[in-house]
Every structure is written in C-alpha cells, then in structure tokens.
Design goal:
The protein has ten helices and ten strands. By secondary structure, it is of the alpha/beta class. An eight-stranded mixed sheet has the order 3-4-2-5-1-6-7-10, with helices on both faces. Strands 8-9 form a two-stranded antiparallel sheet. Strand 6, helix 6 (190-205) and strand 7 form a beta-alpha-beta unit.
C-alpha cells in the first residue's frame, strides 16, 4: 500500500499537523508569547469568502453550505467550499468526493472538484473510519494550513462550512481570515434559535458582517393533501429575532425527504432537483448573498 500524505497515527509536529512537505527554508519557531495574534489576511486567489454558521448542530448547516456553493457555481461564479470541521467533516459525502489531494509545485494542497465546485476537507486527508484524536493546538494549526495552504487556482467565492458552536475554530477563522460576511442557519424552534442568536453576537463581537439568517426546515408540505405544516414551530419567533437584531431573513428552505436523500447519495438538491421549490430556494439565497457581497 502506498504511503499516504497524511496519517493520524504517525508522529506529527504542532507546526505542521498535515505533514505537508516544505520546499523553502524551515520556519523560525518563536516562543508562543512572542508571536502575538495571527495577522488577518485574505485567502490567496479568492475574491470573496462567506462563512456559514449555525452555533447549533443538527440544523442542516453543511447541507445548506454545499447547496449554496453549488448555486453560486450554477450562477456562473467560480465557487469553492472549505470544510472547517476537523473532527466531523461532511463535505466529502455531500459532494461524493474521495481520495487524497495532490500537491501543487509549491507544495500546497490541490482541491478536489465535483459538479463544478472545488472542495477541500480534512475528510480527504484521513480514512473515513479514522478518528482525529488531537488536542486544541494541533487542531488550530491544521485549520490554519487548510485556510492558507490550499491552491484554489482562482475563485470568485469560497464558502466556509463552520462546525457548530462559537469556540476555537470560529475564533481562529475570524482572527486569520478576512470574511466578507457570515450566514446564520437556524430552524424555527426556540432551542436552535437561542444558539443562532449567540452566533450573531459572536460575529458582531469580532466585527464580521452578518449577511442574514436562513431558516431551514421551515415547513413541510404533505405530498398527498398538500397541506403545509410548520413541523418545528411557527416562524414568528425567528422573524422577531431578525427584527430585534436588525438582520435580514435570506430565505426559507422547506423540510423535504429528498433533501436528505440527495445529500446522503452525494447529489445535493441544486444538482439533483434544480427546478424544484427547494432548489429554487437555494438559488434565491445565493442570489441574495451574492448581491450583498458584490459578486
């Protein structure tokens, strides 16, 4: 079996957890107290960067993120998606991608591509069954490498799929990357909305523009009688939260079995059912976001 570029079971260094070869002179390792905060900069060869966050797991954030990237691509933009969830990457499954990325001549990771969207994920670098058992310093350095050591080859927009929560990963990204805006994903139920509001507060605290809130699983339409039911509750509280925090509602994605089924088989809604109501909803959100960030 050929050696993999990366392995979770061999000894790795905190400064290079992905094990990327270095062609230049080795970096100067300064004590942590001398380094200070990392410099915020743009991702090379990427015009616009949009973060998709939920602060709450299980609300369909990754499905939204990948459909948003696909919608940007269908609208004629050079789009990519970066999976920033080190421990539970979803993008390989959602885009039906596998295999280890190749290296560019300057030893940067080359993203994999499907459906016209470039993608990078920790899931490409480790076997699917291998857990990432790392402490925080290794995770943050790996994230830094994913942010700044990928050769995107020129993108109009890069979607960052953030893990749930408001912790180290979110702080690292907001400190190291110039974000053109953040999208908050929530279901209508109060328990999800409370965490979404925490996400709004976090992005405002670190001066990241909030593009708006996206309501996922907003309603279910019975395929037999066509009755519409708000399974997760009335959207009244969500709309009130948007008004209170002065953010716009970007759109509402209905609850539909095919969204989950399409995601699980690696053919997201924008690819498999672009003309459907739900496909149109994703396209509408992408158009609204594109207008806000100047695509």
């Amino acid at each position: 079996m050929p050696n993999r570029l990366f392995s979770t079971f061999r000894r790795l260094f905190h400064e290079n957890p992905l094990g990327l070869p270095k062609s230049n002179s080795p970096p100067e390792f300064l004590p942590r107290w001398q380094r200070g905060l990392p410099e915020k900069r743009r991702i090379k060869d990427v015009r616009k960067v949009v973060a998709v966050s939920s602060a709450k797991g299980g609300v369909g954030k990754s499905t939204v993120a990948v459909n948003l990237a696909l919608a940007f691509s269908r609208q004629g933009h050079r789009a990519g998606i970066l999976d920033t969830d080190i421990f539970g990457p979803s993008i390989p499954t959602l885009l039906n991608l596998s295999g280890e990325p190749r290296l560019s001549p300057n030893n940067q990771l080359l993203p994999l591509t499907n459906y016209g969207v470039k993608a990078m994920s920790m899931g490409f670098l480790v076997p699917e069954s291998s857990p990432i058992v790392w402490r925080g310093l290794m995770v943050m350095k790996a994230l830094q490498q994913l942010l700044h050591e990928v050769d995107w080859g020129g993108l109009d927009v890069l979607v960052l799929d953030l893990p749930p929560g408001t912790g180290d990963t979110q702080l690292t990204i907001t400190q190291q990357v110039v974000l053109d805006g953040a999208i908050i994903v929530s279901t209508p139920q109060d328990i999800a909305l409370k965490d979404a509001i925490k996400g709004i507060a976090m992005f405002r605290k670190v001066d990241v523009p909030i593009l708006g809130l996206l309501q996922n699983m907003s309603h279910f339409t019975c395929p037999s009688c066509f009755t519409t039911t708000p399974i997760f509750g009335s959207p009244a509280h969500l709309l009130a939260a948007c008004a209170e925090h002065k953010i716009s509602l970007l759109g509402s994605i209905p609850l539909h079995a095919s969204i989950c089924e399409d995601a699980d088989r690696g053919r997201p809604t924008v690819v498999s059912e672009p003309a459907s109501e739900r496909g149109g909803a994703f396209m509408g959100v992408a158009a609204a976001v594109g207008a806000k960030i100047g695509l």
